[in-house]
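This week, study the protein below.
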Amino acid sequence: MTHPQPDSLLGRALAVSHEVLAAVEQVNLDAVTVLDGERLRLLQSARLKRESLSAEDRAVLKQIAELNDRAIGLMQHHRRRKERAMDMAAVGRRAVAAYSNTRLHR
């Protein structure tokens, strides 16, 4: 027995969700922004097209949500890593400033 295919808009939104996650993994924020906008339009169109969703469509939406959660978690990880790097750079700048002042006074 063949299973009904999910709504084509939702299928495309799922494919775009995979692309979003790949773009996040590559830290390609411009692509993430464009792809996320495309996914939003697809999801809104799918919502307007139907009154109710089939079980297959709900399963696809669950996959999209899981991919989105993974992408958000990875983005938060990238942000925290960047914040740590900026903090360390600031510590380094303060150390250089402190030591360069003492060398001038010798």
Summary: Residues 14 and 20 are 10 Å apart (CA to CA). Helices lie at 8-25, 29-49, 55-104. Residues 55-104 form the longest helix (50 residues). Residues 8-104 form one domain.
